[in-house]
Amino acid sequence: MFDTGPVAVPAPDLAALRQLGDRIRPLSAAAERTLPVPPAFADLIPQGGLVRGSTITTSGSAATSLALALAGPATAAGSWCAVVGLAHLGLLAAAELGVALERTLLIADPGPQEWAATVAALLDAVEVVLVQPGHRLTPTVQRRLVARARDRGSVLIGAGGRTEVWAEQPDLSVGSGRSTWEGVGVGHGRLRARRVEVAVAGRRGAVRPRTTELWLPGPDGQIAVAPSVARAAPAVAPAPLLDAG
Amino acid sequence: MSGTRTLVVHCPDWPVLASDPAPTAAVIVVRANRVVAASMAAREAGIEVGLKRRESQRRCPSVQVVDHDPGRDARAFEPVASSLDAVTPGIEVARPGTLAFGTRGPGRYFGGDEPLAERVGWMVSGALGGRWPVRVGIADGSFAALLAAHRAHRRGRSSIVVPPAATPAFLASYPVGTLLEVMEIPDLVDVWQRLGLRTLGHLADLPRADVSARFGRPGVAAHRLASGLDLRPLSARRPAPDLAVTQDLDPPVDRVDRAAFVAKTMADALHARLEADGLACTQVLVEATTEHGETLGRQWRHEGALTAGALADRVRWQLDGWLTGASSSRPTAAIARLALVPVEVVAARGRQLGFWGGETLIDERVWRAVARVQGQLGAGAVTVPEVRGGRSPADRVVRVPVAAVDLAEARPAARLASVVEPWPGQVPAPAPATVLDEPELVGVVDVDGRPVTVSGRAELSGAPAELARVGRPSMALASWAGPWPVDERWWDPVRHRRRARFQVVDQQGTAHLLFVEAGRWWLEATYD
Q1: Residues B80-96, buried b or exposed e (16+ Cβ, 10 A)?
Q2: Do A181 and B527 touch (CB under 8 A)?
């Protein structure tokens, strides 16, 4: 009644299997969980963008410009940005680096007492919050802010300042090494463009620092990857990203 | 059928008066780089409402420019409104500078419209200290009364009373553009002008049904106004008492910002409650009660429907005016209870979220966050950037209080492209990322250790070699450029600036923007 001979099983169709796999993958793609960054940074940052809910710090000689450059494309795409403290932020530079000024809020320094509450209130509502804490953050406070950011899908960017104020290591540390300005001679010319070595390290994914030299800004005003110039001296090591102590 | 006999008190150019200028000074109030109000002296110099700031300064170089502050306008207007509380309880404030009320009761009490107008003008003038002109208009309907007050101002009279039933004739000769004072319908007005309906009389002559069919609800509203009727449509009714939102404040609040934050949540609640019933509020009564039982109630009317944010603003203005006003009317205790009572509602047309640049959900959250932060840190803690013309990086983008802008609107003044005028001598791009608000005094010496000086002819005494800053080690300079001399506002003894700018790069590769003024070196910005 039943066939007892060997049964021929058709060879698995790999293409069909791959298609099925794509269909059952979780619906939220990584792209929706990240905020856009300038294309020059896309290779440096492991996830290709700022992961929502993450904390990023910038340091070094171009710390403020890096923070503004990272925040720029997100605001241009429609997100709001709040700057807490940073009374000396160059707003013109922010606009030139791509930050949409019509969606930027500037908040005066709240002082150590109200700092955490203010930043938490802003993380609730805006997607990018730029800070420069003037006082040391306790691990509890930092953890609570990180939890709030993760809950709401916002991004906290620490722009420059002393790196030891952060109690725990941020998700992404963007450090800048030495800058080289082009255009100024001895008694002539003017500042036109800057090349800076940018090193990105993080907790997740990229444990090994990735380094590139960037135009920040380039001769045409854009942020771009600078083709490396052959140097006689060994490559300059980037400034320490986080103090050990 | 005609509109209710209304009296309108109008203080022309109220934003200028609120900033308390000298009586003969030329002052303009500017919002997003455009003039919104100008003093008499400024108008004589040729400045009009709607001009750009630069253009106004060109027409009158000595004009004083004041930033628009709606809170200050409302605060300053509160004593005016409260001075008339003795005449009638039904005062409606449309915006600071203009208020209206029905004349039936007070007219009979004072023996007629003319005596009433005179009396009201005298009372308001007294509340303003007799310094500023007050214009009163009486007509059928608040729109006609407002136009009557404007006409009184133009003719230099203190009041104009339009006889009963003469209102349609009074309105007939006004151009349709005057409707823009009370309604936001620039496109409709444009269409009417192109169709040949240039005056309100032309519009009123059209049959109402045809206007409704062709132009819809806004057209009907405009038609009512042009015919001398009230804007309040017949569908407006007194809402049920349970739509009011009351909140007991425990502990009682005496700071305006905390009260304003509570008001924002109450306004959201009221808005939600009305929306659930398909209603929108056009007139609201805001009542604040203190611990000692003193109450201040003020009715606010708005041309469109009041959004939650606009409502919260009005509560803040009212409380600001009350708590910081003249000591005779100031409350003696903290505010213990706030009530928002919708007085007039209309059928809501539904909200279009983010269609033609209107409200979006994102902006609602941002408003709430702004209100919360202001509650914690004070109203001045939140600012937004605004682009101005200028030469130095600090002048080109400034911080403007968030209360003076409407976050939901598109703000062209926040874009770099909004400044098209050339500014010779401007510091070129790229801009520095750190700009000090107060320049830092530094020292620059040449290779021999002598301070570098710049002569009047922009000649250097020596090549800058080292930059010394307070509290930091001296840095040798790898490269430098300059001097770029700039002599700004030489005609203004107070704001004259004569500087020579330099860009320097130190050995570590950090670039700075320095300038020399009066023989001393200052650090203006760092290219961070």
Answers
A1: bbbbbeebbeebbbbbb
A2: yes
Give the closest of A102, A117, A191 to B430, CB-based.
A191
Best residue of A88, A124, A192, A195 to probe chain B, by most B CBs closer than 10 Å: A88
Is the bond preceding residue B233 a cis peptide, omega within 30 degrees? no
Q: How far apart are CA B508 and CA B447, in angstroms?
A: 18
**A-chain residues within 8 Å CB-CB of B402?**
105
The identity of residue B250, as a single letter, is D
Q: Within a 10 A sphere around the Cβ of B50, how many other Cβ atoms?
A: 9
Greatest CA separation for chain B: 93
Q: What are phi and psi of A214, to 5 degrees?
A: -120, 150
Q: Which of B167, B171, B151 is nearest to B159 (CA)?
A: B151
Q: Which of B88, B72, B123 is nearest to B299 (CA)?
A: B88
Instruction: Kindly provide the b/e burial profile for residues A76-92, where b requires at least 16 CB atoms within 10 angstroms of the residue's own CB.
Output: eeebbbbbbbbebbbbb
The runs of H, that is alpha helices, within A43-186 are 63-76, 91-96, 111-125, 139-152
Higher pLDDT, B408 or B464: B464
Q: Which has the minimum average pLDDT: B208-222, B223-237, B288-302, B352-366? A: B352-366
User: Which pair of structure tokens corresponds to residue B351?
Assistant: 């909200």
SS3 assignment, position B460:
strand
CA angle B394, B16, B383 (to 5 degrees): 35
B229 burial via Cβ count (<10 Å: 0-12, 13-18, 19+): buried
Tell me how far apart the alpha carbons of residues A13 and B169 are, in angstroms, rounded to a whole number.
Answer: 86
For B223-246, what is each residue's pLDDT tens digit?
888 888 876 654 445 667 778 888
Q: Do the chains contact at B373 and A106, CB–CB below 8 Å?
A: no
**Does residue B19 carry a pLDDT above 90?**
no
Q: Is A109 exposed, middle or buried (0-12, 13-18, 19+ CB in 10 A)?
A: middle
For residue A223, give the chain B residue with the closest CA. B430
- Contacts of residue A122 in chain B, CB cutoff 8 Å? 369, 373
Q: Does B507 touch chain A (CB under 8 A)?
A: no
Q: Give the per-residue pLDDT at B243.
A: 80
Could you tell me where the DSSP H helices lie in B380-507?
393-396
Of B448, B472, B467, B447, the closest CA to residue B515 belongs to: B467
Q: Which ipTM value was assigned to this complex?
A: 0.79
Give dist(CA B313, CA B139) in Å, integer: 30
Residues with pLDDT less than 70, chain A: 1-12, 18-32, 204-208, 228-245
User: Is the distance from CB of B254 to CB of B261 less than 8 angstroms?
Assistant: no
pTM of the model: 0.66
What torsion do the CA atoms of B104, B182, B364, B290 make, to the nearest 10 degrees? -30
**Helix, strand or coil for residue A12?**
coil
pLDDT in tens, B278-337: 777 778 888 888 888 888 888 887 766 667 777 887 888 788 777 776 666 677 888 888
| Whole-number Å distance between alpha carbons of B193 and B203 | 10
